[in-house]
Amino acid sequence: MVRTLNIDCLNSVGQDVLVKGWIKARRDMGKIVFLDMRDRSGLLQIVIVPKLLDVASRGFLEKLKPEFCLSIVGTINKREKPNLNLETGEVELLANRIDILAEAEVLPWELGAEMKMDTFLDHLPLNYRDDKNRAIFKIQAEITKIFRDYLVEQGFTEIQFPKLISSAPEGGANVFTLDYFGAKAFLAQSPQLYKQIMVGVFERVFCIGTVFRAEKHNTNRHINEYTSLDFEMGFIEDPRDVLKVQLDVLRAIIKNLQEKCSAEFELLKATFPNLPVNVPILKLREAQALIKKEFGEDCTKEPDFEPHQERWLGEYAKRTWNSDFVIVTHYPTEKRPFYIMDDANDVGFTKSFDILFRGCEIVTGGQRLNDCSALVEKIKKFGLKSQDFSFYLEAFKYGMPPEGGTGMGLERLTWQMLGLDSIKQATLFPRDQGRIDLVLEK
Amino acid sequence: MVRTLNIDCLNSVGQDVLVKGWIKARRDMGKIVFLDMRDRSGLLQIVIVPKLLDVASRGFLEKLKPEFCLSIVGTINKREKPNLNLETGEVELLANRIDILAEAEVLPWELGAEMKMDTFLDHLPLNYRDDKNRAIFKIQAEITKIFRDYLVEQGFTEIQFPKLISSAPEGGANVFTLDYFGAKAFLAQSPQLYKQIMVGVFERVFCIGTVFRAEKHNTNRHINEYTSLDFEMGFIEDPRDVLKVQLDVLRAIIKNLQEKCSAEFELLKATFPNLPVNVPILKLREAQALIKKEFGEDCTKEPDFEPHQERWLGEYAKRTWNSDFVIVTHYPTEKRPFYIMDDANDVGFTKSFDILFRGCEIVTGGQRLNDCSALVEKIKKFGLKSQDFSFYLEAFKYGMPPEGGTGMGLERLTWQMLGLDSIKQATLFPRDQGRIDLVLEK
Fold it and tell me: Mind telling me how many Å the CA of A126 is from chain B's nearest CA?
């Protein structure tokens, strides 16, 4: 007998089917046992009337409990009272025969129970079976899909970038080091140099991959390994071309999530963000002046925001422009990596931008230096050695058009999109200083 | 003026357009200069009649050479003699005005020139601008897209797996080690344990990501960092369910490449593989007996093949069954990782399979142990500590259905699909023992 998915039972009224899944809940009502059974397509109500069950199955009926994996043969009936909260709520399965595919120990808590972050993280393999956690990563899978589909449509080519690198373009402080057959290698902090090289080849490229930051922060917005959604495009006029693609990507993500994941958003009590046609855009120093005026804190001498200042900006933007996003441009030259282009019309500042989403930076981007000699000069000015970048520089020796791009943190986007407490809840297997799956022994 | 892509010039006859791209070739025919200009959509012929050009552009006409980035305004005309080898061959652009967006040094060789592998690798940023190399990675991008699209359609959920891990499930020999905030961490050799955990959550999952092997091999089929295309699925009957999905994925890849990349295959003189309805499937020992009989070499005592034996099998399968693929099953228990299920009907052998493609293993898969206590026992039998796997084991404590999956090397698949000499030609930025981009100083 071929397996029927729970969702397809809707079209099988009066028929005998074979279904497979996990017990989500068991309810004993007198002699009748009801099971909610979960498979990848959703839930189905199983009705077990012991006397209608084959003898073998009757023997282990008592032991069936949450997270047992079962295979059940039975008849699909229309329910007298449909359950409107369930996609398959118009039908139920009356069981004839049950097979246990795998047993489960007694759950230490009900799925979805509140607990401390450490307990939550210690038991992800169990905790992820809860509907809410499943919803988070369903949404995350959708986000990556939309990101890719949208960029492919716009003529971008996907590339696989390397994670083992020999120099650290984003600065040496936050980089993991390893022994590589007797030489020193680093773990990539971004796909930056490689996606730029590939602009010379494909003009427009994107990549989705793991990057690593050896940061000692232990906050609700930092993790040491994350997924970066990057694109890079050539033949731009200025950073606005890059910004437009980035905002269109975000628009596509929001629109598609509204169409495909509204049930998941409802379950998570998450609100779809507002990304207005005219997103507020401020130079860093304008944003700093605004913070001084509105919140009374003087950060005008600083090269970047503190987290609470980003939150203030987010709140202000929501209140004032009804926007969940704020674009901040013109970060100072010395605080951005060497490959960022300076703005000739605003000396000391760069053609860079960040996008803050609900008060947290989720995107960094800008226009890059594409002139080879200017790039060499800037590398030296930053105290780096141009020979360490000779491989990269070759792409610029042979014709690199004006170009730019962005990097967006998948987990940060997911976290802010869903209003979760910590980015760790939006990271499938989060790594922090003290933990790789479990707490590390040091 | 908005930029027109080269390919769209076909629909702009008689109109003035702005195009942007790289010079691929320059031909001087008396006073007239012809350029082949490349952008992401393809090539376009540019006709430059100096007296019809604005004065400023005339000044630098002489210096234009391959890989300069240009912006050109001109009129699209129908060609008298269409170039049938070019997608835009029915039209050409008569230039009015040229702007140089970036200059290029004189190329050290013509793009596509033959050279030693080391020279090729030293200059990837330049060499990748050649059409053939671009074709390889266009095809690779298509493969990842088809893999994902096909599995999403089959109800699989995409996951992001971690690359920093705390234990090495595939065995400790080939693993890179690093210092992780004072603790020891490893680089993932596969997403194996995580995709299995997630079967408990989503039933069917897939992932595409980088994995690392600290192997000292220096062959045409080994690299130290590669992209693994993985899936894992629950509620299977036996390994054939897994094999079916894997073969269907391969079928989808071949079919879609035939539809979308036939020009690239032609350029690379590559032949689409034949994947028959009934792919030859042999137990390891049957394949070894066949090798003994056909090729006179006795490897019947070995737990796996040598590369030349895989090649023999590939040749034999092509000759005998007209199949570019061979499935080999039942590898011995002690030579497969602990998580593989033994075949109760064939003691000492596992429910595992490899798929050889044109004489090289590209897929490894099988059914996994899903019973928690059997798993714990096997871990111990393999001399590993079950407490090192307690996080993973939790997924099995709470109901894991019969499940299995596969891993496929993206670069190996691309390499064999296109009949390239070395896997390095199918790896965007290949790492080997002695090289990360450039040769390492040790």
Answer: 6
